[in-house]
Write a structure and sequence with these properties.
single chain, alpha+beta
C-alpha cells in the first residue's frame, strides 16, 4: 500500500515543483523593469534625496520661459533622443549667466531612463541644471536635476535656499554726461555796461535844454 501511495504522490510533487518554478520565473521577469527604472525616481520615492540637495549640487538655477523645443532623433534601437530647449530667462538664482537667452538640453523619458522629456513651449520653468560637457555654453538636465514647472511654492523653496536672486535682464546703462562749454571770456567792464544808459540820459538832457530855449524865444 505504501508503495502505491508513493507512486501516486511522486507525479503530484513533481508538478508542484514545476509550478512553483514557473511562478518564481514570472516574478523575476516582473521585477526586471523596476530594477531598470529611473534611479532618481526610486531615490525620490524612498526619500534618499531632496530638492534642497539638488539645488545645492546644481551649477545653475534660474527661471525662464521656453521659446522653442527641438527633438533630435538618434539612430539605432538604444539611441537617446536629445532635445534642445531655447529658454528666455527672467531671474537667476545661481550660476554665472550674462545673457537672457540660454540653451537647456534634455533627453526623452522612457521606462528605463530618467530623461526630462520635451519641455512645453511658452511655459515657465524653474531650471535646476548642470553645465553640459559636450555643448559649450549649454546647460543640461538628465531628469534627476530637479527642473520642473514654475509654481509659487517651488520658487519660494528655491528662494529659501538661494535668496531672492537677480534679474536676468541687465540694468540699463546710465545716459552719457553732456559737457557744456563754459564762457571763459573776460566779463564786460562797468563803464562799458553803463555806456548805453548814460547816452540815453545825455540825449534826454539835451532835449530838455532845446525845448527850454524854444519856449524862451516865444
Amino acid at each position: 500500500m505504501l508503495a502505491a501511495a508513493r507512486r501516486l504522490l511522486t507525479p503530484l510533487l513533481t508538478a508542484l515543483v514545476l509550478a512553483f518554478g514557473m511562478v518564481g520565473g514570472l516574478v523575476a521577469l516582473g521585477a526586471a523593469p523596476a530594477q531598470a527604472a529611473c534611479t532618481c525616481a526610486q531615490a525620490a520615492q524612498t526619500g534618499a534625496d531632496s530638492l534642497m540637495e539638488r539645488i545645492k549640487d546644481a551649477d545653475a538655477v534660474f527661471t525662464g520661459t521656453v521659446a522653442s523645443s527641438t527633438r533630435s532623433e538618434g539612430t539605432g534601437a538604444d539611441a537617446v533622443v536629445s532635445i534642445t530647449n531655447e529658454v528666455v530667462l527672467d531671474r537667476v538664482y545661481k550660476g554665472r549667466i550674462d545673457d537672457v537667452d540660454q540653451t537647456v538640453l534634455t533627453t526623452q523619458r522612457t521606462q528605463a531612463t530618467c530623461g526630462l522629456g520635451q519641455l512645453q513651449v511658452d511655459s515657465r520653468y524653474v531650471f535646476i541644471v548642470a553645465s553640459d560637457s559636450t555643448v559649450e555654453g549649454a546647460w543640461t538636465d538628465d531628469g534627476c536635476s530637479g527642473t520642473r514647472a514654475a509654481t509659487s511654492a517651488l520658487i519660494a523653496e528655491v528662494q529659501g535656499v538661494l535668496g531672492g536672486g537677480r534679474s536676468a535682464t541687465p540694468a540699463p546703462e546710465p545716459a552719457p554726461a553732456v559737457l557744456t562749454d563754459v564762457d571763459t571770456s573776460e566779463p564786460t567792464s562797468l563803464s562799458r555796461a553803463a555806456a548805453p544808459g548814460l547816452a540815453l540820459v545825455l540825449v534826454g538832457f539835451l532835449g530838455l535844454i532845446l525845448v527850454g530855449r524854444l519856449n524862451a524865444r516865444r
